[in-house]
Amino acid sequence: MELAAIILIIGAVIGAEALIFAKYASRGIYYSAGVDKTTVYEGDTIELSEVIENRRLVALPWIKTELSASKWLAFFKKDSAAQTAGDENVFIPGVFSLSPKSRCIRTRRIKCLKRGVFSFDNTVITATDILGLVTRSQNVEVNITVTVLPTALDGEDTLLSFTEPIGETAVRRFINEDPFLIAGAKEYTGREPLQRIHWKHTAAKGSLYVCSNEYSTSEKTLVLMNMQRKNVYPVTCVDFYDLEAFIKLSVRLAENSVKNGGCAAFATNGDGGCCSDMINGEEQLLPLLKRLAELQSVCRTDFSELLGAVDCGVFTDIMIVTSYIDGKMKEFADRLTAEGKNVVIYTDGSTEDAQDYNLAQVSRFAFRVNTEDMAV
Hints:
By secondary structure, the chain is of the alpha/beta class. It is built from seven helices and 19 strands. The chain is flat.
């Protein structure tokens, strides 16, 4: 009888513990997450901080969190357990054990592998009682968005010119120095006007020095990116690798123009038609980078329509980034060249395209997104 009573008491305690845990398991558990930076560049590392808090008087021996993230946000292996991969997402688990009235903060490092806008929408929290008899799960909204800006195509080896002229080329700039572009100071020769005297340098050197100015440029570059796949109808977007290479090369061309003292603009036939305002300085590149980060792999507009609609009147240089070259591009390039503009076509296609149309300036480029070892 005593043994039976003990068994009944133990069973009643276990049953009561299971019932109480089942009823109150999700109460008193609070979860939040945040990142240290919401806008970064490809290749940058961010930190994700998870905070889970037990506000109850009862310990939580085992809590599991499962965070859903894009596969292009690579969690460092030492900062995460095994990842379960999906088509586009990975699920990052975390295990916690909390004493009463306590909290735990875990920081994970993430490397941003590719441009895009990525979000952490929710986390699944699973709690189990001390005996492992009852399991309860709940979804917690996180609502974290990280914008990964594209970086410029890097390295001269990626641009393999096969028809572009080599050797000395004329630099497009104004004849006179720009009085607003001060590069430093030089000795006074007696021919410079007195208002150009560099007083700070004169005081430091003890003799007269005047401002040394840079030459400004009249270069205005238009970058046209063709997202259309060759010989596919209805119009279809190029594959993932080509698109990422096109974006990185377009960023490089725009940056080069701006850094050389000129200005640039961008347009593409993809994602419903994406274009930028005139970019006159490096600080104005950010809106373009954000738009390119948001650019979807969708293309429904024939590139010839973009060529017919774009106004090239104010531009001196037109750069076309494409996977192929056809007769309409040839006609477009010939017309602008006859107007005294510089047209360069960048392609990752075959050299036969350029040779068939006898284009003056064509550069071939090569780039591949590194998809090896998504978890760093």
